[in-house]
Amino acid sequence: MQTILPSTLMVVTSFFSFLIPVTQVTGRTHSKKLSFMLNLSNKIPGRMTLCITTLLTLVAMSSGVFQNSPRTSYMKAIDVWLFGCFLSSFAVLLHFSVVVFLNSRPENREGQPGLSPYRRRVTAAVDRCGRVAMPVGFLLFSVGYNLYYEGNYVKTDLDIEGYTLHEMEGFYSRGD
């Protein structure tokens, strides 16, 4: 609980960057006056900082867990969890980079400033897809993780050599 809950909160925090619309990320609006007044181009460093901070926090959390856990030749359950959290946060950063790249062309093919309608639709579709797919993917990962490792935990620890949980509690309480 000391690792899973904070790492989950870090991934959810990285998902908050999806709340900033694409037009505000690049500062491209239809009105230059509106863009100047709202200073929308300053959203990129904030969103990028949020993504990188969550990644660095997960790396620091992972190194703390690895230092305090015994060395094994196989991946432990906590290693799988932290790797999944790291991949989810990295996917958010990668998604943001792709959206900024798609939305950063200063002029369209006709030489006029702004994005072409096709590129604007593609950027919006990529952004919508990422907003839904990444949280759903992390939710599926966490459900699959819990089902797999909870199932293995119950089979190996609560049913040891045919003993029931009640018999095992009695065994441990006798002090044998």
Rg over alpha carbons:
23 Å
The largest pleated sheet is described as: none
Q: Give the averaged pLDDT, no decimals.
A: 75
User: In total, how many beta strands?
Assistant: 0
> What is the CA–CA distance across the termini?
30 Å
Structural class: mainly alpha
The helicity comes to over 70%
Number of domains: 1
Could you tell me the CATH topology label. Answer: Methane Monooxygenase Hydroxylase, Chain G, domain 1
What oligomeric state do these chains adopt? single chain
Query: What would you give as the CATH superfamily?
Result: Neurotransmitter-gated ion-channel transmembrane domain
Provide a descriptive summary of the structure in words.
The protein is an all-alpha fold. The protein has a single domain (4-173), classed as Methane Monooxygenase Hydroxylase, Chain G, domain 1. The chain contains 7 helices and no strands. Helix 5 (77-102) packs antiparallel against helix 6. The chain is elongated, with a radius of gyration of 23 Å. The two termini are 30 Å apart. Residues 27-40 and 154-160 have low confidence and may be disordered.
